[in-house]
Request: fold
Amino acid sequence: MELPGGIIVDQKVCRSFNFKPLTGTLERVISESGFELKSLAEQVTLILVQALDNVAGLTASKELVRSLCSGDRLYLMLQLQALLDPSPQWLTSHCRHCDEKIQFQFEPTSMPVKPAGKDYPDTSILLSSGEVKIRVPSGADEESLASNAQNEQNAMDLLLQLLLSATSHTQNIHTLSQDDLELIDHKLDEMSPQPGTSVSIECPYCSFQQQVNIDHYSWISQSTQDLDEEIHTLAVNYHWSEKDILALPKRRRKHYLELIQRSQGKYQADDFIHASRGEV
Reply:
């Protein structure tokens, strides 16, 4: 599997990555990641550290995951979501024309992905004040903004301070012209990899075609109730500990649950047959 962006290893962009086997432990980490962490950016870092085996052959440490560009982090979360639940997701929105409620299916892996541009991950551009170096935003930047930004404008100022570095002069972001800002925005968009963040749907009531934004991170806050019920079922039937059950790869856990369901179905069928024959 390959990232749309990648990391620099030995002066080359490397894009390979692998996930660890998906276990109940990871599912529990994901669903409980928001209990103590202050920001979504920190949650994403924690989840990817737990889920990734390696990136470009390097251990997926916290520092490495924080260094990944924002587009790669979002791409990884989409891939992880699809691996944990490959079935299509049903989402709900309201039509912007007639305000009727619309339900539609969404598959994380169906989202178009824009690959990184040729200057990725950083390049030099000429602003009105002189030449500056600019780089794509990373997970570390996301965490910094989440911790320090007070409002939207302040967040933009902080991001510019993080992404821009002057080569031969001191750059004051408050002196940037509108042309400077547009050039920065264009260059970042050109360099940055980015999975799609919206889908096009047609309202079944008024036929209005519209773009609907997708919250790609909403799934990480889902309840652990299903997982808890699966643990309970396996513990009751096999007398395994919670730790042992959570350590199972998800595929094996599901297989054991299917075996339990089959056995229960067989026993129920046998009971029905005996009852119909008047047997005790």
Notes: Residues 250-276 form the longest helix (27 residues). The mean pLDDT is 89.
